[in-house]
Every structure is written in C-alpha cells, then in structure tokens.
Amino acid sequence: MRQNLVKLTADLDPNDIYDQLIEGGVFTFEDKERIDHEVTRADKARELISVLCRKGPRAFGVFRDALKPKYPH
C-alpha cells in the first residue's frame, strides 16, 4: 500500500480527476477546495487520497474509473 501511495503522489495531478469524482458523487466542491488549499501537487495528491479514504467503499471504484483515461497504467 505504501509503495502505491508514493507512486500516486508522485504521478497524480488531482486536477485531472476532480470532475469525475464530483460527477460520481464521491467528492463535493468543498472537498476540492480543501485539497486545493495544499501548496504542492504532491501534497494535493496526498490530501485527495486522504479524503477519498473517508468516502466509503464505492469511492475507490469511482476513483479507479477516473484515473483510467489519463493514467492507463
């Protein structure tokens, strides 16, 4: 899990997936604002993962689907 978190925070730009997470009912605009308050892209990615972990079991599937177009690996 830790190795995946390091990879995600190194590669993920939260701006790439906000719309899908909001449309999927996983994130709110308030969640996006909370994440955007972080300074670096890596800190934003870490905060996104932190928020995602509190969103319940369906959140991971929406997150995975949001990643597919920009992060196919």
UniProtKB/TrEMBL annotation:
Transmembrane segments: none
CDD domains: CARD
Residue intervals of the CARD domain: 1-73
Domain of life: Eukaryota
Pfam families referenced in this protein's UniProt entry, alphabetically: CARD
InterPro entries in UniProt: CARD, CRADD, DEATH-like_dom_sf
Protein name from the UniProt record: CARD domain-containing protein
